[in-house]
Design a protein that fits this description.
262 residues; 76% helix; mainly alpha
């Protein structure tokens, strides 16, 4: 266990001392504040004045109350839940190749599985932090805007949905780590993240019949933001999601253990 704790501490210090951690935090803070700003514009459309961009963005919000705000917040969490954790794992696994230190790490007297496991734990904790910041600061922004219709029941329901959707989207980020290791860089995994986001939208728009069986659409089905026309996720849906997540983790561990890193 000492080897694992040493690997975990090392990965934590890499993240803590990096600029990437603070860049992602600032980005998610900015998104949360912008959500509150858009709701404020939707509540006071006269402020937009002659700005076509602000008026167009605000017009996409049907109502300026907590019900609409929670729906907007959940949609952002589902989108950034794919993008955020994906970028985090791309950085955690890809920097070893970009900094050309992968051979030095593999030469350490520490199990490669423990190194991979430590990287995933730090990546998951980092991802949870970002999504909590998005939700928490988003709620504070909603109070600052003084939205109507706040109820403790609605908040309890939405925080439960947020928690489950966040965990589901974070679990689906493991294949990104595998692609990062195979490609030994940043470009391909980032392209994969963007492709998954595009495919997910296409499936929701035109192939609703397969949404319970495509892993990245399952969090959207659970949250309910996909709309009443989409089917409910089943036990098979969650099984597919877990298998996808485990395959990404196991594949990454196997790559570190058996691949030729020369």
């Amino acid at each position: 266990m000492k080897e694992f704790y040493a690997a975990l501490y090392t990965e934590f210090m890499k993240v803590w001392k990096s600029k990437m951690l603070w860049i992602t935090i600032v980005f998610f803070l900015f998104i949360a504040f912008m959500m509150g700003f858009l709701m404020f514009i939707a509540k006071h459309p006269e402020i937009a004045g002659n700005s076509v961009i602000l008026s167009t963005k605000a017009s996409l919000i049907s109502q300026s109350n907590w019900l609409a705000y929670f729906g907007l917040l959940m949609q952002l969490i589902l989108v950034l839940g794919v993008f955020g954790p994906g970028i985090v794992l791309v950085w955690i696994f890809g920097r070893e190749y970009s900094d050309r230190v992968i051979k030095d790490i593999l030469a350490l007297p520490v199990s490669r599985f423990r190194i991979v496991f430590a990287k995933f734990i730090i990546g998951f904790l980092w991802s949870i932090l970002l999504l909590v910041i998005l939700f928490g600061v988003g709620i504070l922004a909603g109070f600052a805007v003084k939205l109507d219709g706040w109820t403790s029941v609605s908040f309890s329901e939405n925080i439960l949905t947020f928690t489950v959707c966040s965990l589901l989207t974070i679990l689906l980020s493991t294949p990104v780590a595998l692609i990062t290791c195979i490609s030994r860089g940043y470009l391909l995994p980032i392209g994969f993240i963007i492709l998954i986001m595009i495919i997910t939208q296409f499936i929701f728009m035109g192939m609703t019949g397969i949404t319970p069986y495509f892993p990245w659409t399952i969090p959207g089905l659970y949250s309910g933001v996909a709309g009443p026309g989409n089917p409910e996720p089943t036990a098979i849906s969650y099984f597919i999601l877990i298998i996808t997540s485990f395959s990404g983790f196991a594949g990454t561990a196997a790559w570190w253990r058996y691949a030729d890193h020369a």
